[in-house]
């Protein structure tokens, strides 16, 4: 029998931390004794618990401690983080530490360093006295890599004392919720966030073009609601096709019907943009006259188009090496406070893995399985909306404009 | 080897009748010889074809002829329909004729009678010199029932020479179509139909209430766009719950959250309506102050609420015997020209089976499998829209009002 | 400010009872003080908590207490249940108590009576000194109906100390789980349950016939795994159609293709069964020779076929009044220990509402939204499997037979 | 008014070619006159039609001719294909020809050359006297590119006179078909194809690992049913994780539960494979002991792993540049006769675009929308199966083994 003391501190009960911990111990067939437990008597008080965790043997105990670690357990005595050098480029030492998407600290030379660029399923290295989160393939020979869980502290987001409507909508995934009201609440949240200097990214798939949501998204970019666009070749191609030919994958959006010869439009579009030297130059040359990419270029909103094997062309701005694209996405997502994911599972999951759990995310898809999958991937502050982006985005844009008008009127009075 | 001559007449090629016929013969491993074929040289001309169909034996030939019959084949010599009396109530003679949902005629005593109340999967009886379509359980002992296919003519709808946008949208089921534009086209169709004295029925499920589409549907009823409502207990209960308690299944639609104690609201609602003596009386008594049922009562729009085993209560107006409900639905659907099916598979399929193929139908559901299933059930003039009714209905109502305004302005000038 | 003391007892922390309670108070913007808290130090110990709950006013406090009540809060002093007579048939007194699906007790004349036939969203009456759960429309004038929450105790199922594989699978709904292994675990659970004298009900839709699962389900009935079948007209019709014509809705299952004339088969089937006097008589007369209904009749397994407005015919055994059907279903479900729900949302939800939370349920559907909806409706011991019943049922039957063989072999050694 | 004569030849009516042509002309509001029409009187005869097609003006006429071209229309006089040089790398001449996925011929210097490597949405160049199909980004400055539609002939696959079960299953997408029987038919088709020296590719996503289908797929590779594997990083990672740790994304497949610490397994797996120098070396070093990748390496079955932005790691064999990956896929797909697509929309659509319409494809996914989307993308010989790969693949493998056994027994007799 092996045992170890662990501590928890915070809103242990209503943030479900202690229940989850005891739950986990029982699940793993471990034992526990509660050595000390001071409960915050009122809701603003913190609680404190000290547990003795018992495993059948050291290995069993370690398994239990691993799970407790990921929900915020501290080992009472502050231990120094353990580091081992990477034996070669991209090769990691045994037992390397795998990150969560929660804010994380390492106790390095007696100081708690916050890990920079935290995201799911990555590794931590100490470089120049800083703790940095790295993709596996960024590790260089000799990098000092965190191994084991000693000296690593994870701080899962607590349930806020004062909750907003926004947070309450989280959790369940269903198409049977009041869509217009959800849009109202999301619009409110975006406006509040923008007023406080927050930054919003949109991750979007080509259904934006096909379902007729493109003009509204372009409007949101023009009006300054969006600070970053993450997407792929298809969204950009069909957006530009709409500008040049008035069709999306050859379909006339006013009738929902393919136009004769329309099947050629997306390749003709790509060819024109390549000939012009890229999207930016095609906007400057007046070839692209409106739409999402146009507004990004005109308003200096950065965009990243990541390649996929489905791509035709692709457009010159598309980053065809997915690892290069991923790094560019991570870079661009620094300092983003909210991400709106629109009808794309591939890009949404990729972005989800790059985000810390403190970033608000809104996932919109007509397929409930997609929304569920995105919500399951550990983004704590996520809201899922099962609806049609073809109606959602225009309605959201209307609501944003309406709310801005109201506020202006109030201020003018 | 057995053979028989059959004829086809109409727009044989572009309405796919002849291709389907030859296709069917080949599928069934029959043989054919084209005895005569006069093709309409221009698009407004009819075509005529006379085929010799050959089967391995009489049974094989009959199978082939059965399929050809259902797509409109005529046996050249006009044969008298064959009738046999029903041996007992609900019991049918051998080889009874099973209807399609296409306009159907029987050659009775030398005259072609159109079958009244045609719908899918029913039987035909001659009663008082009229050909009537009956449910199986409506058959009475001694009823003269059509058997075999002799003397029965089916007239599948032809592809119209001049097509509208509405018809073009049919066919494919996909969430990747321009939703706002589809709504525009549907609104146009409704307005045209209403102007020409057409009648519109709505078939709706409780998602109308939960997704926040209820006020818009109530508005459409108030403004005279809807002539009949077919639904069940749940839609009515939650609609009235919204009027009395402001919640739908205990959820506050302004926040998307359950209210404490809200789980009781739908039972309290039912109890109040029962105590008042039913929906009509509860409206008159001022207990129900707004919503779908309120507008139906106030505007004398008939509604039929058919029971299901999921029902709580149910409300007094709910018809708990499903066969009684079905007959009431069939009755109410006479002279309806368009049916809008909103987020209910059960009711939509039931209604689909009661409609002739000449009635326009619009099926809206967020689940593409539901829309596909409805479209597969043989309603030729059907459009499927994969979208969220919570946004679709309010948008459709807005569009209807906008178009009416536009037309009024044009007329006033 | 109004305040009240409440108590909780049990495995408060790892069964999430106390966390849920504090969570609820905070959600509703109430206040609390923890007056006493004795935590079980080891996992087999019970815990005890006494809280002072504070609301803004009496109404606010009552809302909070209502939510706490439904998760098991006790008012320390044992209060007598409050009863009021029903003013008329089906009419309830104000503020009547609405049931959960958890085991429930009422303090009547100083004794705690367990409510009989507990199910979701019903009412409680005292009849002949017993507490019984009634549908709203079963209430008779003068029935003593429980009002308010005083003297009513709800006992939500606790998380078992020793968990089985079966319980662990609950919760998440995803198509990305190991289907064969889930089937293995479910088979094990069924066998254990049957060995201990447990009783299993199946709720099934017509996809059982269309997807080719019918023979396997018939086999499970023949071999004694199933004690009750709840379904509708369609499943029975196509099952019998398969016996008489070898088709399901006219489709030849060996080829997946419609057979010519097959569209008539289901009506011909219904007609034959009506002529024979019903399913039982048709089995006895040798008209039905195999399949699900055949095995039910031959093995004296009760079945209930509830009507719906989609039904053709219907077959004589179908109960066309849905309220009569619902009562028959409730009756039949007494003493059932497990329910397997196969590809039918309508019947599954109806059955779910009739079951106490202590009955194990397995929901199988290819549509994840259906499974999620079933899991959301409060059936605590539910497992959802997103898969194809056409493969699931045959595989489950194989697994059951295999496990029985293994056990026999072990016993024979 | 502009007019042009076009010809059609083949099984014009039952292969729907003429109906589609007339349909298209009417859709586009063109006019036609049938100048000559000789119908094959028996099913083995070819038909011939000569039409005068009339448009409002030359542009309108060209639109109509474009659509007719893609369904096989010939301009009577054999015209020489028109070629223009590419002005720069990746830049195409105006009005360049966009390919279908049907076998295509160009009339170059009086000879009809078949276009090599035909696939959807590409361009045709003449290089070294051969007509080759190129991705847009493969075009080099000076390449002679086909422009317009003159001298280009498309030959859509005809409906075979003698149809197999396999072909009949095509078309509809529904979860309500007999899954076991579909598997039987697919197994038969695979065995026939392999006996005739055919080659089968599998395109698969990571659900193969999570749903427990992996061992069966590995078995199919080992037994020689599969000649090529196209997939991504995730399938390979979790397959190898199963070999090393017995988990898939940290889930123990025997219980469907995550194992403690399992979240690290996939990164540990990737790290081990990188350290070993790749998948092949890890197999040789005995690190990977079984599974899909193991069988590919041991049996010299080529595999291509294409990168995506979701990838962790990735494994060394993953091609991170999507355009390089796409070319490798096209190369590998030469001489493939059947493609089985298992639970991956991204890879399946990418592969679909690379395949000529003559290759048989089987698309299996639990989401009907995915299957519909794949079927809509123009792969004529496609079968869609809406089912769970976790049961489908093991059952298919069993069926293949059973059929081989039967055949061996027959031959041994």
Automatic annotation (TrEMBL), chains A, B, C, D:
Domain of life: Archaea
EC number, UniProt record: 4.3.1.12
Catalytic EC class: lyase
Cofactor(s) listed in the protein's UniProt record: NAD(+)
Domain Arginine dihydrolase ArgZ/ArgE-like C-terminal second subdomain positions: 186-396
Sorted UniProt keywords: Lyase, NAD, Nucleotide-binding
Short name of one Pfam family: ArgZ-like_C_1st
Gene Ontology MF annotations: nucleotide binding; ornithine cyclodeaminase activity
InterPro entries noted in UniProt: ArgZ/ArgE-like, ArgZ/ArgE-like_C_1st, ArgZ/ArgE-like_C_2nd, DHS-like_NAD/FAD-binding_dom, LOR/SDH_bifunc_enz_cons_dom, LOR/SDH_bifunc_enz_cons_dom_sf
Annotated LOR/SDH bifunctional enzyme conserved domain residues: 4-102
Residue span, Arginine dihydrolase ArgZ/ArgE-like C-terminal first subdomain domain: 103-183
Annotated catalysed reactions: L-ornithine = L-proline + NH4(+)
Family as reported in the entry's similarity comment: Belongs to the AgrE/ArgZ ornithine cyclodeaminase family.
Protein's job: Catalyzes the conversion of ornithine to proline, with the release of ammonia.
UniProt protein name: Ornithine cyclodeaminase
Organism: Archaeoglobus veneficus (strain DSM 11195 / SNP6)
Lineage of origin: Archaea, Methanobacteriati, Methanobacteriota, Archaeoglobi, Archaeoglobales
């Amino acid at each position: 029998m092996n045992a170890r003391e662990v501590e928890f501190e915070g809103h242990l009960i209503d943030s479900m931390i202690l229940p989850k911990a005891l739950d986990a111990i029982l699940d793993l067939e471990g034992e526990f004794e509660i050595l000390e437990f001071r409960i915050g008597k009122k809701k603003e008080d913190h609680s404190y618990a000290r547990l003795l965790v018992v495993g059948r043997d050291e290995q069993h105990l370690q398994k239990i401690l691993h799970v407790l670690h990921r929900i915020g357990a501290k080992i009472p005595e502050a231990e120094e983080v353990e580091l081992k050098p990477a034996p070669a480029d991209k090769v990691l030492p045994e037992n390397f530490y795998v990150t969560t998407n929660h804010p994380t600290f390492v106790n390095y030379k007696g100081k708690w360093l916050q890990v920079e660029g935290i995201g799911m399923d990555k590794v931590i290295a100490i470089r120049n006295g800083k703790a940095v989160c790295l993709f596996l393939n960024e590790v260089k020979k000799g990098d000092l890599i965190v191994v084991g869980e000693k000296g690593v502290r994870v701080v899962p987001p607590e349930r806020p004392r004062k909750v907003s409507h926004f947070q309450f909508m989280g959790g369940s995934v269903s198409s049977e919720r009041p869509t217009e009201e959800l849009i109202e609440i999301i619009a409110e949240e975006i406006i509040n966030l923008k007023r406080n200097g927050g930054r919003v990214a949109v991750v979007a798939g080509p259904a934006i073009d096909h379902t007729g949501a493109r003009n509204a998204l372009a409007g949101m970019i023009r009006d300054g609601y969006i600070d970053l666009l993450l997407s792929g070749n298809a969204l950009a191609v069909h957006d530009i096709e709409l500008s040049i030919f008035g069709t999306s994958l050859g379909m006339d959006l006013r009738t929902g019907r393919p136009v004769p010869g329309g099947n050629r439009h997306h390749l003709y579009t790509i060819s024109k943009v390549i000939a012009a030297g890229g999207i930016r130059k095609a906007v400057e040359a007046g070839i692209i006259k409106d739409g999402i990419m146009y507004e990004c270029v005109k308003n200096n909103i950065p965009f990243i188009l990541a390649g996929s094997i489905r791509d035709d062309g692709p457009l010159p701005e598309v980053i065809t090496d997915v690892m290069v694209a991923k790094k560019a996405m991570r870079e661009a997502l620094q300092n983003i406070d909210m991400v709106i994911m629109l009808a794309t599972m591939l890009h949404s999951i990729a972005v989800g893995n790059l985000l810390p759990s403190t970033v608000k995310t809104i996932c919109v898809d007509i397929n409930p399985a997609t929304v569920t999958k995105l919500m399951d991937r550990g983004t704590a502050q996520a809201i899922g909306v099962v609806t049609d982006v073809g109606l959602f985005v225009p309605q959201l844009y209307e609501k944003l404009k309406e709310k801005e008008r109201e506020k202006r009127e109030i201020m003018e009075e």
